Structures are given as structure tokens and as C-alpha cells.
Amino acid sequence: MDRTSRAMTRTYLKKATLTAVSDATEVRETVSRILQEIDTHGDAAALEYAAKFDKYDGNILLTEEEIAAAAAKVPQKLKDDIRFAQDNVRRFAEQQKQTVSHIEYEIVPGLIAGQKAIPVAASGCYVPAGRYRHIASAVMTVTTAKVAGCNHITVCSPPQPGEGINPAIAYAAKVSGADKIMAIGGVQAVASMAFGLLGQPKANIIVGPGNQFVAEAKRSLYGRVGIDMIAGPTDSLVLADKDADAFIVATDLVSQAEHGYNSPVWLVTDDGALAENVLRLVPDLIEALPALNRENAAAAWRDYAEVILCTDREEMAATSDEYAPEHLTVQAAELDWWQDRLTCYGSLFLGEETTVSYGDKASGTNHVLPTSRAATYTGGLSVHKYMKIVTWQRATREGSKSIAQATARISRLEGMEGHARAADVRLAKYFPDEDFDLSADG
Ligand SMILES: NC(=O)C1=CN([C@@H]2O[C@H](COP(=O)(O)OP(=O)(O)OC[C@H]3O[C@@H](n4cnc5c(N)ncnc54)[C@H](O)[C@@H]3O)[C@@H](O)[C@H]2O)C=CC1
Ligand SMILES: O=C(O)[C@@H](O)CS(=O)(=O)O
Ligand SMILES: [Zn+2]
Fold first, then answer.
1. Where does Zn(2+) bind (predicted)?
2. What pLDDT does residue 1 have?
3. Is the domain defined by 233-379 classed in CATH 1.10.10.10?
């Protein structure tokens, strides 16, 4: 079936009043001002913003003693869970690394070209900790950098006022392989990693999730430093058919709406009864959450959530691809059909037996994923994001012959005489007794 020719007949049973771009201009201005100040005034400005936004004026670069003291505060059961999750993420990342191979190929006789994957030297990992303590983000970012082979890994995470960095985040960062751990958050953290401030080396790539300020700081520094992707406020979409369990669907939607007031969740279904059931169940599930989570989820549900009724599964899939969600869940028959059909998502959760929370915390796939429709052009964090795929070539004199002639003529046709002469001199040196027509119209 031609996917593009179908007209959409979907109905919005609930429509969002806000979207990810709603407060973008204001955020952009704030971030640009902070970055400029830190770029000009270095450490002093970074510390000033840490005091202002993190409300923290304690030690920023943790000492080994501080890291050990933090680890001592983490209960053994939680340490075991962190190690379990870290091991799953590490083993999955190792499998992914095996998909990047060095290649060597003889393109024309005597000219061999190759591809090599070189890990980025220094990576800066942002671990969010504003509303929640994102312990799992430390595991996701640092473990993957380590498996990729980065020489140096810095972690930045916002401290709690008067307390410093969360102990379990420091522990997770350390066991995952961090070299330096910094108690700093927000734009000032991203800037410090990009500019090499406060005692850390300059990062070549900055990775990790964060709120809209963190995501915008990474976006605007891109070019000066590498980034993994735009991984801002979480968004999630559930595709469910008539056989889905409305209670599970509603619980899964609420589970991701708790991230923040600006975390969209979308239900796309072809079953009106299921949609009505979910709409009925969600408010009570939100109401039953602890206060902070309730506040976040209630605002996200009110302003950003959508419930969309489609005519059939093809329209559901097309709608999902258009939204390009960070997390995509399918609770519908024929999972293979969906797996084959869907094309835009950060991570896909097939069937009721798994859920986004598994991937968020412990199952091994990475939870740092593209948001705000970035899944239309990229996947999530993986070893590949830390690896530069570079090419090389070498040639024999005989191998140089055909390439040099084509190079000289193409260069002349382009008007690039200097390029042409780099080929001319080789032909003249290696084949002094031969005549070549190297003119543009040769
Ligand atoms: N896309 C992904 O893969 C993931 C995304 N996330 C997202 O990460 C985010 C975490 O956000 P937060 O809890 O806020 O933690 P955060 O660590 O990202 O942000 C906290 C920092 O924001 C800065 N900040 C707060 N208000 C500010 C203002 N008005 N101006 C300038 N700076 C300000 C402060 O420096 C503070 O330290 C959530 O939106 C969540 O959905 C979390 C995990 C994964
Ligand atoms: O935004 C995300 O990807 C998350 O849902 C990950 S976590 O829930 O913060 O661990
Ligand atoms: Zn989550």
C-alpha cells in the first residue's frame, strides 16, 4: 500500500494545547546569554551560575574521598541493582560495538580504501537531577562511553542545595567508569564540559539527557563540540488495539507523564471503547501518585497529552511515524507487523510484557533517546555516537593511474587547476613515457 497517498481521518478525543516548541524562544534567549557569559568569563561565571541555578556553592570536582563517602551511603541492595542494570547496558553496548567493523576494500586494482572506527577521546556526560535523581542516566551515558573506548569521561550532575551530588548518582558514575565527577547542573554544566572549565579536560562530545535548558545548551554548542542528539523532555506514544488492557495502557501513559509538566504522552488507537476507558482511568492513576509526581503528570496530561482515534492500524502507524516519539509502545495484535512497519522512534517496546520503564532503568537498551521529533533523523545513544567512522586509502603507482586521470579531468572541468596538478605530477613522475589527455574535454 502507498503510505503517503492515504488521507488521514483520525479524530482527536483529547488534543494538546501546548507542544515542545511552545516555550522555545524564551529558553533559547536565556541559554544564549548564559553561554556567552561563561565563554567570556570562564570558571568565575560558571560558579556564579551554579550558585544561582543549582543553589550550591560547595566543592564541584569530587575528590576520591568524596566519591568513596558517597558510595558508602548507598544501600547494598541498590548497589546490586545498579550493577545489574550496568551489566545489562554494558553487554548490549558490547554487542552494538561489534556491528562497527574495520573494513579494507580494493576499489580499483592497486587502490585500497578502508574504514576505521576511532573512539572520541574525551566525553562529557550530563546526568539530570533536577526533579528526580536520574541514577540510570549515569549508567546509560558512562557505560556506553567506556565500551566505545573513550580515554576520559567526565560526569556532571546537579547537586542538591547544601548536600552536593546525589550519592547513588556518584556511585553509578564511578562503577560505570567515570574519571571525573562534577557537582554542577544545567547550562553551566554543559558549558563547563564544552569549554574545559573547573578542572576538567575539554570534552569532544557532550552526551546525555536533560531539561529544555540542557538540551538547548547542547544544541547551540554543537559544532564547537559534538553532541549525541537532542535528548530533552521525554515524550512517549502508545499504540493499542481493542485487545489491549486499558489499565496497563493508562498506567504506562501516566508512568512517563510524571517526568515533568512538559512531557507529552500520546495514545493512538483504532478502538473507541479502549480510548474512553483510558481517558476515564488516567485521572485516578495520576491522583494516586506522590505529590511531585502528581503535579508533573497532571500538568503534562492536561496540557500536552493526546488521545487519537484512527480508522485502522495503517493509519495508527502513519500517525506514530509522524509524531516520531522518543518511546514507542505497541500493545496490539501481530507484533511482527508493527515491528516491520514502524519507522520513527527512539526505542520500541513490543507487547504488554515489556514497558518503557524497563528500558529506562535496567533492561540494557539505552534510555538516552531523541525527543521533539528528532527520531525522524536519529536513533538514541549507543557506542556509535562516541565513535568517529573515518576512512583511509593507499595506492600502488599502477593503482594511481586510472584515478589520477579521472581526477585531473574532473578537477579541470570544475575549474580547480591546483587539484588537477596534484594528479598531473604523479602521472608525469610514475609514467614518464606515456601521454595522457588530461584536458577538461579530454
Ligand atoms: N530524552 C531522554 O533520553 C531523557 C530525558 N530526560 C529528561 O530530562 C529532564 C530532567 O530535567 P530536570 O529534572 O529539570 O533536571 P536537569 O538536571 O536536566 O536540570 C536541572 C538544572 O536546570 C537548571 N535550571 C533550572 N531552571 C532554570 C532556569 N530557569 N534557567 C536556567 N537554568 C535552569 C539548573 O541549573 C538545574 O541544575 C526531564 O525533562 C526528563 O524528561 C530524562 C532522562 C532521559
Ligand atoms: O526520558 C527518558 O528516556 C526516560 O524516560 C529515562 S528515565 O525514566 O529518566 O530513566
Ligand atoms: Zn521514563
1. 256, 259, 360, 419
2. 44
3. no
